[in-house]
Amino acid sequence: MGYDLHEPAVSQGALSPGQLRALCRSGSYRGATAGIAPGFVQTNLVIVPRDWAFEFLLFCQRNPKPCPVIEVLEPGQITPRTAPGSDLRCDLPGYRVYRQGVLTDEPDNLVNLWQDDLVSFLIGCSFSFEAGLIAGGISLRHVNERKNVAMYRTNIACVPAGRLYGPLVVSMRPIKSTDVARAVEISARYPEVHGAPIHVGHPRALGISDLKLPDYGDAVDIRDDELPVFWACGVTPQSVAVASQMPLCITHAPGKMFVTDEAMPR
Amino acid sequence: MGYDLHEPAVSQGALSPGQLRALCRSGSYRGATAGIAPGFVQTNLVIVPRDWAFEFLLFCQRNPKPCPVIEVLEPGQITPRTAPGSDLRCDLPGYRVYRQGVLTDEPDNLVNLWQDDLVSFLIGCSFSFEAGLIAGGISLRHVNERKNVAMYRTNIACVPAGRLYGPLVVSMRPIKSTDVARAVEISARYPEVHGAPIHVGHPRALGISDLKLPDYGDAVDIRDDELPVFWACGVTPQSVAVASQMPLCITHAPGKMFVTDEAMPR
User: What pTM, to 2 d.p., does this model score?
Assistant: First the structure.
């Protein structure tokens, strides 16, 4: 709340994942991470108390398109194997705290909120394959305009797990109609970061009435020669935290991802 | 303990999964399931109390080669989505009960043991791709000789998860050296039932000193023109139950799998 998403702290392409995390930790970077440290796996962050961890992991197992699990940390642990030396409590540009299904806070870090029973889940993010799309000659408007990607709640129900249920969230990228098939082919190579799109072309089929009003992130224009293409999104757990009225669920702020040291496969 | 593995109740190839499950339920079939109902997904069964469910699912997530998750049931539930009308408590040919890491019983069914807090996991079994190997012209000795497959504990430690740790278990099939590459290619198509082998040729590299003495199942001969080929095995959780001294872990008896209604992809 109140941060400028469009403030490149330094020349973005030059940042390594570790440099970006250090900038976040010192409070120097609060922007979205699309286009930052291209070629490295970016992840959504979901943190739940230990007594919700089984149901959340089961939710991921049953909903692998929105929730591909990259890593799960032991209770209380803060340093993923995929980013040695990192600290999940302060190495992201922004966080959200949901209590009883209500967004109650957007803190800069989690240092004061941390509890030893918290279990952290890293879930693949579609920002990870954007470098592949760009290398394939597919232009991405939100990257070019330094915006956050547009995300929407859909009318598609996820498969429930225990007490957890809620609607699928999608990210949307306008793609030239001549490039749609190739965008599908390229993203399909990366199932661990959402893989192929779940829908092409008709937002109303997903229950999205107005693309100009995303539920998370920033709207972008769609030109006449383009189609809106929708990928399953790792913000889905945030819609689930709300729908299921989880007592406590801590996440990244949408679009402000954790960037790991794992290179994307080529 | 004491069952004859080699008692084909009926013409095996003719059995549907539902027919096999009905024979198990009535007590008419207590044999191994290799070669039975070919072309359908067979699974290992692991049942743990609710308060071990997160760690066991996390163990599977961290060890996908031995523990590819096909389905996880809600606590207390007994009928998987992949086999409508079935009952996991009595539709397998045999069960094992581990308490505090000790094999204490091999019951015919779990009806008297059942508790509402038990969570059932179905884990892919390599028997599922054997029909594909046979269709590819690769002969399987344990199927031809109506034996259980040979399984061995290795010196490879699985990735721990919480309180759970233990050695990888493998199944072994003698394969003609001219067929090894094709056996790898065919099984690699099916990652959800262990996929490609983890090792070819040198049992000592896995800490196996004598192939004639399997830890589970039946030994088979290896001929001069053959190599022993090792696949990750869903009996691994049984070695983990022992190593980790789990208070309670209920499983299928090795080789006596749950047969689902899911057809293998071609």
Answer: 0.89
